[in-house]
Amino acid sequence: MHKDILIRIVGGFGIGVTLGLLVQFFVAMGIEQEGYAWVVPEFQAFFPSEAIAIIAQILLTGLIGITFALAAQFFEIARWGMLKQYIVHFAVTAIVWIPIVMTLWMPKTMANVFSLLASFLGTYVMTWLLQYTFSKRDIEQINAMLKKEGELHDN
Amino acid sequence: MKAVERTVMILKVEVSVDPKCIEPKVTIHTAEMTDEIEHLMHCIASAGIHTLSVLSDRGVEFVNCQDIVRIYTEQKKVFVQTLTGIYTVRLRLYELEERLNMQIFVRISNAEIVNRHMIKRMDISRTGTIGVELVGNINTYASRRYVTKIKKQLGL
Predict the structure, then answer these.
(1) Cβ–Cβ gap B128/A78 under 8 Å
(2) Is there a contact between A78 and B109 if contact means CB atoms under 8 Å apart?
(3) What's the pTM value of the predicted model, to 2 decimals?
(4) CB of B51 within 8 A of CB of B87?
(5) Is the predicted ipTM greater than 0.90, yes or no?
(6) I need a surface site. Which of A26, A37, A117, B40 has the fewest CB within 10 A?
């Protein structure tokens, strides 16, 4: 059990950092400066040097990854049901990733902030709806099968 | 005279404990192959697969795997529930999964394995809680992730 959590933490950190670097790559394409922008200038301004800013960014994106990796455990709590699982997962991960993403990449307009939140929330709603539909269909099939087996037993 | 000897089979049972022996093995020494010996072989061979040693307040007991309704974890302990009682086992769920006949048993969540012949019906609530109704009025929950496995188990 402890080993499982450790694997999640390490894996989550790695995935978080990788995705963070990928996001930074696309953000950097929009920044005009000499050489590659490893961090956005506004974020770097918080730190005495670029190197420290980069380390901070790696740690923060890693933290997002760890949060998601651990929060996945909420989906294992069967008695909660999907709605509660999704709401708790959203709330817990949002508390971590929203402030971090805002600090790292600072969307400049309200429209940007809004589209970020909307796409995140939209993904949850879509996934929930799909999962629910699939589960409902699966359960109907299972019940039909169980009923058929039951009738066979009775005869 | 010989026929009498066969029906009253006197067996010497010997156990040798050897830490180097990884898988326990039973050897029967006999002068000839008889029906009794064959029956004995079947009993020994099937005892390992079809029964499970469990603990109750009366001590160690053996339950027939077919009688098990569900096996679940609660507060880090593993419980075996039959229609007649609830017992504990020292094995972890994944160890039981390796040991039990997984044609009969199916994992329904991180914390639970059920006997598939004991599933009466399933349901899904409006908030997405997947309920499993078992024989003996036992109600429990399944994880979305395992619903697909249950389907497969039922041959769907």
Answers:
(1) no
(2) yes
(3) 0.76
(4) no
(5) no
(6) A26
